[in-house]
Amino acid sequence: MKSLRAIVLGLGMLLVGMPLWADQIPGNDPRIIIGSGSGSLPVGSTFLFGSPSGTSPATSPCVVDGIPEADCVFKNSTNSTFTSLAFDVDTTLPPGSMLGCTTGGPFTTCSIGPDGDGIFATFTGGPGVLPGGDFSIAVAGWSPDTDFGVGANGMTPPDPGTPEPGTVGLFLTGIGGLGIALRRRLRFER
After folding, report:
1. Mind listing the pLDDT tens digit for each residue in 35-87?
2. What is the 3-state secondary structure (H, E, C) of 83-121?
3. What does the radius of gyration of the chain's CA atoms come to, in whole angstroms?
4. Neighbours of 123 (CB within 10 A)
């Protein structure tokens, strides 16, 4: 009887989880696309951006430091040519899906591999992005609110899983409030 319940529960969880993977069928696998562009948001050799819908710029802007960039076009604001761009994405892919990358514009090759907490993709080759030059990034097929850390020229991309300072401050304020409440409760019980 217990094993029947376990089987029914497992099948129920599978049926509930299937819609979460429905957009991950072949052809809709997550991908990162690099291209050319013009009119852009300046970025340094490392930056983070998020995709509210998981598909940007097609269905939502790329968001950098709270600033939406509708076309996901960025400007190299350093004095160095970007000869490589590395992406760190802290997520796991649904079973059966594969990460794809498409090169174009400033880069000719892409390599993909796992890292300690997700996926790492590096774009290299080609002319790169000159200082003051523009480049576009498109992401598609990711989960909503996916964040991407980007590093140029061998710089380690910022970890997209690292919380913003405001989030850490709010967390610490909550912990402090719980400590004060516990202290008052213990004092009241004496």
Report:
1. 888 877 999 999 999 999 989 999 999 999 888 999 999 999 999 999 999 99
2. CCEEEEECCCCCCCCCCEEECECCECEEEEEEECCEEEE
3. 21
4. 30
